[in-house]
Automatic annotation (TrEMBL):
Protein name, as recorded: NAD-dependent epimerase/dehydratase domain-containing protein
One Pfam family in the UniProt entry: Epimerase
Superkingdom in the source lineage: Eukaryota
One GO MF term attached to the UniProt entry: oxidoreductase activity, acting on the CH-OH group of donors, NAD or NADP as acceptor
Record's keyword terms, sorted: Oxidoreductase
Record keyword Zinc present: no
Native organism taxonomy: Eukaryota, Viridiplantae, Streptophyta, Embryophyta, Tracheophyta
KW Manganese (keyword) present: no
Domain NAD-dependent epimerase/dehydratase residue range list: 3-122
Source organism (scientific name): Triticum turgidum subsp. durum (Durum wheat)
């Protein structure tokens, strides 16, 4: 039985501001490595990339009027995200753009979903920022 679809949901979350390059490299290379592996599978029909809502909603307010509809042509401003040091958003933007480019060049049927956050079993023994925020909501701390 062949694999016909892939869901790519993993992305590094590095909270140390000095780790900007590590986060960007890990996100972009990790995404491209998944797609390179997918390219080798002749039975693959579709790849679903879990991106982030931060790839479309972060811009200077002057560039982002209220009530504007966001669609597949909408992108957050990398420059704005860099100016306020939101490296996770920069990493997700650049990784998704790289994925779209690779998919187009290699005839891969790519779909991106943009959730605000994803929760599930933790792969790390250390509680990550998203899981920590959700736990805070459940405990009534946030």
């Amino acid at each position: 039985m062949a694999c016909e679809g892939v869901f790519h949901t993993a992305s590094p979350i590095i909270t140390n501001a000095d780790s900007r390059e590590e986060m960007l490299d890990s996100a972009i290379n990790g995404t491209l490595n998944v797609l390179r592996s997918c390219k080798k599978n002749p039975f693959l029909k579709r790849v679903v990339l879990t991106s982030s809502s931060s790839t479309v909603r972060l811009r200077d307010e002057a560039e982002f009027p209220p009530n504007v509809l966001l669609d597949e042509t909408s992108w957050s401003s990398v420059e704005f995200c860099e100016s306020i040091q939101i490296w996770y958003a920069v990493a997700k933007i650049l990784a998704e753009k790289s994925a779209w480019e690779f998919a187009k060049e290699n005839n891969i049927d790519l779909v991106a979903v943009l959730p605000t956050f994803v929760i599930g079993p933790n792969l790390s023994p250390v509680l990550g920022p998203t899981a920590s925020d959700v736990l805070g909501l459940f405990k009534g701390i946030c």
